[in-house]
Protein 1
Amino acid sequence: MTASRKPFLRALAGETLTPPPFWLMRQAGRYLPEYRATRTQAGSFLDLCYNPELAVEVTLQPLRRYGFDAAILFSDILVIPDALGQRVAFKEGEGPVLPPIRSARDLEGLDISGLHQHLAPVYATVAGLSKAIPASTALIGFSGAPWTVATYMIEGGGSKDFSHAKRLMWSEPETFARLMELLVEATGQYLIRQIDNGAEAIQIFDTWAGALPETEFRRWVIGPARALAERIHAERPGVPVIGFPRGAGILYEAYVAETGIDAVGLDTAVPLDWAADKLQTRCTVQGNLDPILLVAGGEALDAGIDRILKALGKGPFVFNLGHGIVPPTPPENVARLAERVKTWRG
Ligand code: 1CP
């Protein structure tokens, strides 16, 4: 394979770049007035995800403003349950709502056979983006990790303590394992199709990884991430995989060592020197500015950016946040961040 010239892909392949490439989780979204306008035009949030023309447009909006090194497909992790037949609704101001899966019987209602037909508009968005993005910008495809997607499927939406998901995991282990197997298979197929339509790297979001105790983390966070990374590496060699096991704590080390991912997304709590020593020696690291610093702005923002660049900029690194941009973020603070990262000289 010829070495890619796109800075983001070079960093994922293990090169140290000064300044490092950068993008931000949730870089498209409600903090941008032009996103809110397109979103109104689309109707519901899912209508926007399934409208290739408008989904391409909202993906490009933050690139025009800030010149990020990567574009991330505009979609959501919950299109997978939706495509398996567990219909998802986004209630205004409340987040996602799904009819919960709580038993073997509920599970029987799910069906993988219509997956690609349902997700065809998402694949069309990836193909459209692949043509529309600037030549030096890389295209990231993504999915939720099976555990995080399963929490929404079992809880029927967002949750504070994941009590239904954990109860199913511990009291009906066979049902839970079947759901996880279905998600690993559907997610693997989905990511391969994104790659075939032009995605150049994949990020797997395990937002709720930190909710699991060690034994279950190893089985249901590390296990599926390893299966997905192995499948992508075997079937589409050369496409890098970024894992984001948010809240993993010191289990970040086992996650990196045992999954075979190419890069790891650090949440805001990961100590920088520890990450440089224990993780960056094994793979590229990405992160981890606190998204609320982007709301606060000013010197606190500058200092936060500088600390991260200093600690992680000497090895393979992609600058990012430790979690997604929040809606109250002033767009001018994102411009301030972009300028500061792009002009960093080590
Ligand atoms: O009203 C709106 O416009 C909806 C807000 C919104 C947006 C902009 C949702 C609903 N999803 C998204 C887009 C989205 N979601 C992207 C697009 C690309 C980008 O980053 O620019 C991505 C990658 C996601 C992934 C996602 N969705 C995650 C994992 C990452 C993370 O932020 O932790 C999760 C957990 C979701 C579920 C979800 N979707 C939307 C909401 C409000 C939620 C969270 C619900 C909860 O808090 O439990």
Note: The pocket of coproporphyrinogen I is lined by residues 25-30, 39, 45, 72, 74, 76-78, 90, 95-96, 142, 144, 158, 205, 207, 324 (CB under 6 Å).
Protein 2
Amino acid sequence: MPQVDPHDTADIALHGITVRYGKAREPVTAVENVSLTAAPGEFVVLVGPSGCGKTTLLRIAAGFVTAAEGTATVRGGAPVPGRATGVVFQQPRLFPWRTAGGNIGFALARHGVPRERRAERTEELLARVGLAGMAGRRTWELSGGQQQRVAIARALAGEPRVLLMDEPFAALDALTRERLQEEVRTLAVTSGTTVLFVTHSAEEAVLLGSRVLVMAANPGRIVAELEVGLERGEETDVAALRGTPAFSRLRGELAAVMREAALTPSG
Ligand code: ADP
Ligand code: MG
């Protein structure tokens, strides 16, 4: 291998990852020989048809599963669940018996934030996701979108430099989804967080990602890559971006690549 490799400086580096599920006789090869990197501050999106291994790759980066072959590093070390990485799933998975603030306080405690500072940190985190003053709300008093906001705030509790998000907006209504997309994009840009984000929406991928990796299934693998190159400043009007010709063109391009990838024969 060459001396200087993007894998060495990346926040997330997967190298030759193969994951198999199931036991001896008929193992399912979920992903085969996948390599990817996300540089510090980069927003990398994984797209592809259902079953192509998107969640599996996120699980690898989160340290929830180990690969049969290959190596995974996050900020230079082996991924450790719950340590330095924030994870957001499709369903918010909050503790239903805790309040919004209680869910976040629990995460803060796990990250070693002393009790006397938790209330203030909880308020700050809720404010960052547009839920200022909602700490006392019970989870059943929150809409789906608000619950997902709490889940994002919880993922930010440990001030992660790396955020892994698995179709976090898939279960939300269109309007809530658009607002959260805009907020997450702004949050990522302003905080410089490295994000690996999974979706099957071309629109979402192009809006959020600085780079999009397109996967095909059977076995799961990366078949194409698209640099997005839309404006990514702190002042960018993310909502307005959707109306630009550059955005429409990229979305169309990606959709075409995704259709082709979905038809790619098994490799
Ligand atoms: P995606 O998130 O792209 O839909 P997944 O990573 O969830 O894909 O799954 C990739 C493949 O691995 C699929 O064929 C799926 O059925 C299989 N798979 C995922 N999780 C498991 C598991 N726990 N046990 C067995 N097979 C699994
Ligand atoms: Mg999945």
Note: Residues 54-55 surround magnesium ion (ligand 2) (CB under 6 Å).
